[in-house]
Amino acid sequence: MATSTHIQSLLSRNAAITTYQPPPHLAQLGELWAANPTIPRTLIISCADPRCHPETIFNLNPADPADAAVVIRVQGGDIQSALSAVLAIDNLINFTHTILLKHTDCGTLVLRDDKIKAQLKERVAGSGMEEKEVEAMRFGENTIPMEESVRRDLTWVRESPLVSEGIKKGITGMLFHLDSGRIEVIE
Q1: How far apart are CA 127 and CA 142, in angstroms?
Q2: What is the C-alpha separation between 57 and 72, in angstroms, rounded?
Q3: pLDDT tens-digit profile of 120-155?
Q4: What is the pLDDT of residues 13-57, one digit of tens each?
Q5: To 5 degrees, how large is the angle CA 163–CA 52–CA 50?
Q6: 76 and 21 in contact (C-beta within 8 Å)?
Q7: Cα angle: 176, vertex 173, 175; to 5 degrees
Q8: Cβ neighbours of residue 5 under 8 Å, at least 6 residues apart?
């Protein structure tokens, strides 16, 4: 299959980069953290919405080790949907700070799990895939205000036996207001 014009444009932008500085190897990061235990090891779980880029929202500088963050973007900033990635990366990094970042005007307020499941069941009909696999899926619908969604997820993190103590102790819930660009800390 031929690459689309848009993808070709993205590849051309990458090819035009002349000042690339490779990041440190993972082993070097481990050494840096061991030698400087006060350097934050930050995880940001946020929505995949293209209007919300944590790197921009927090004005992160990837060249600064104190600003380096693992950013996992998933629908609605739903930590349960991102759990396997969170657990795997935490196993390597041992996060000291975690931000659960959701935002106003989120698409998860209008998407509905049942509607998505119905479409998927139609798609897999006759494929041999069992409907119960589709039925077990979660897509992160929110039927509560986003402030409450943040609180619900904070409670889930703090009560989950799967989540490390580092994440539990260092988690902060936040709501990004698209209309003002400001962040509200949610307790």
Answers
A1: 30
A2: 14
A3: 999 988 888 888 889 998 888 889 999 999 999 999
A4: 999 999 988 888 888 888 888 888 888 999 999 999 999 999 999
A5: 110
A6: no
A7: 15
A8: none
